Amino acid sequence: MLWKIYYWLIIAISIASMFVEAVHGPVIETTDTVISIISTIGFFGYVYNKQLLSKSFWKFIFIITVIEVLAYTMLDVLNDPELGVGGMIFVTAFTLIIMYPFFLGLYRYGFRKVNLS
To answer: How far is CA 74 from CA 10, 32, 58, 79, 89, in A?
Structure first.
């Protein structure tokens, strides 16, 4: 039940983020959106116990998603000179705490031993 609540919170956050001003340019923003949509579909498969595409695809998406979230977060904090070191640490830690269940779900979805039916 908590996974489903978290999934819908991620959906709400994703929708809300579409209305935030793009600050990194169209290529980075489009790449982020595409990776977010694909990884959210994988998270849906994990939460609702549905096998979508192959496990090897989701392993790849898990790795790409972790790299993309870390890179996007670093890009955000490095481009905001008002944050300072403490702010950078806070934003990075907050992002990783919020995203940890998402990463865990994607990891379990791609790396589990048993396929879903």
So the answer is: 20, 13, 24, 8, 10
Tens of pLDDT along 1-13?
899 999 999 999 8
Tokens of 86: 């403490």
Could you tell me the end-to-end alpha-carbon distance of the chain, in angstroms, rounded to an integer?
20
pTM (two decimals): 0.84
Q: Which residues of 59-88 are buried (b: 16+ CB within 10 A; e: fewer)?
A: eebbeebbebbeebbeebbeeeeebeeeeb
